[in-house]
Amino acid sequence: MSEFGYRRGEYCAEDVPLSAIAEQLGTPFYCYSLAALRRRYREFEAALAGLPATICFALKANSNLAVVNALANLGAGADVVSEGELRVALAAGVPPHKIVFSGVGKTEAEIEAALKAGILQLNVESEAELEEVDAVARRLKKRAPVAIRVNPDVAANTHAKIATGKSENKFGIDLGHAREAYARAARLPNIALQGLAVHIGSQVTELAPFSEAFSRLALLARDLKADGLPVKRLDLGGGLGIAYGGERVPAACDYAALIAEIVGGLGCDLVFEPGRYLVAEAGVLATKVVRVKDGITHRFVIVDAGMNDLLRPALYEAYHAVLPVREPASKAKLAPVEIVGPVCESTDTFARERRLPQLARGDLLAITTAGAYGAVMASQYNSRPLVPEAMVNGREFAVIRARPDLESLLARDRLPDWAAAKTAAKTKARRQEA
Ligand code: LLP
To answer: Which residues of the chain register pLDDT less than 70?
Structure first.
């Protein structure tokens, strides 16, 4: 079931037509459905029901306070990778004991913030980081809860730019060194070893790579236990793929069954870090046609959202379905168009050769399945203000991030003293001339 769809001829999020939000907020904007967020979370939770699992939403997929708060209200924890995300998770009401901190480049200040907040665990990705966490904990007179992230050297069969589990990737400690690193960690006085972590990549659409990675992790956990070391918890990462265009993807219950089979017998608590699975389907990017331009080889539909608002197609050649907000007549003729943004780069293209009904200036479009890695990856490239966000709940909606005005964009920069006086004088002179 989808919370997004046509009702009375208009594409809606739950009971709210996107055009109603566009009227208030302007375009482009992201729109999330609270019901969809809830459904996805509950689906994931139900699939894992038989397992001792904590679901830590990966904030990198969508760190809007209202989105994280909605998931926290359902019981979600958080997987964070920066002090900023840690602050969002805490402000959204995620209890510290459900927060894990991942990432290869945690700074000393971030390690300190995590320890002071009292989070569940830091997933440590190198021996150098381990020493640093130990030192920070000692200074704070604390013991740092740590899991060792291993690199299982498994190909996730996903886009190369989002695969993380091969030995050539920067992530985790090589499986071959993990046993030794774990034993060293156990000897560090200010480290409280919790267990192991793994994450092989994102948008993984087959179960086999998970199976391979988790089997290697389970083997290591057994070896460590045999060495007499504690392995209380296994963090199995995120990565479960979703359907962007009707492709076949694993069901959460099959993913859970595989996990029960592979690690169920180890007696460890489990942590999951889903991002995309929980939020991708719960969001769309609404945009307006600026104009239609007929080129020699293609018809370009130029929209007011750009690659700075939704980077995935430009960066990964990712597919996102594009739908007209006004429902096309059932017999409307379809013709291939290029849906492009206004940014001065040829890669600023949302869809190529996409068959759509006739479009005209002012028409609204919905770029679907954009709730994950959409707004969070937006930038202000071309001095375009950050794209705003709205959330729908039944018949009502709220603006959960306002569109910044151009004044505030300008106000971020400062002229150095040596230039300011001269520029002010010139501006004054020009004003007097006019
Ligand atoms: N845990 C760790 C350690 C991760 O690195 C990631 C994603 C996740 C969890 C969440 O993975 P998910 O369940 O969302 O697949 N920008 C890319 C995706 C980058 C993912 C990076 N790591 C995209 O738009 O496809």
So the answer is: 1
Place of tokens 């002012």: 362
What is the per-residue pLDDT across 337-395, written as a single tens digit (0 to 9) for each? 999 999 999 999 999 999 999 999 999 999 999 999 999 999 999 999 999 999 999 99
Single pTM value for the model: 0.97
pLDDT at position 434: 81
Ligand 1 pocket: which residues have CB below 6 Å?
A: 58, 60-61, 79, 102, 162, 164, 199, 202-203, 237-240, 273-277, 312, 316, 373
| 217, 276, 277, 320: residue to mutate for ligand 1 pocket, most atoms within 8 A of CB | 276
Looking at the DSSP bridge assignments, the partners of residue 389 are 30, 401
Tokens (6 digits) for 194: 């919790």
Instruction: Count other Cβ atoms within 10 Å, centred on residue 427.
Output: 10
Burial 40-76 (b: 16+ CB within 10 A, else e): bbeebbebbeebebbbbbbbbbbbbbbbbbbbbeeeb
Q: What's the one-letter identity of residue 411?
A: A
| Alpha helices, H only, 140-235 | 175-187, 208-226
- One-letter amino acid of 367: I
Q: Report the C-alpha gap between 289 and 432 in whole angstroms.
A: 41
Which residue type, as a one-letter code, is found at position 371? G
Residue 290: the pLDDT is: 98
Whether 344 is catalytic is yes
Handedness of CA 306, 307, 312, 317 (dihedral sign): positive
Ligand 1 center–CA 372 separation, angstroms? 9
Q: Which atom of ligand 1 is nearest to the CA of 103?
A: 3
Distance CA(64)–CA(28), nearest Å, equals: 17
pLDDT score, position 156: 83
Contacts of 66 (CB under 8 A, 6+ apart): 32, 389, 391, 398, 400
- Residue 321: CA count within 13 A, CB half-sphere: 15
User: 7 by DSSP, 3-state: which?
Assistant: strand
pLDDT of residue 161: 79
Contact 284, 30 (CB under 8 A): yes
For ligand 1, what atom is nearest to the CA of residue 315?
24
CB atoms within 10 A of CB 227: 12
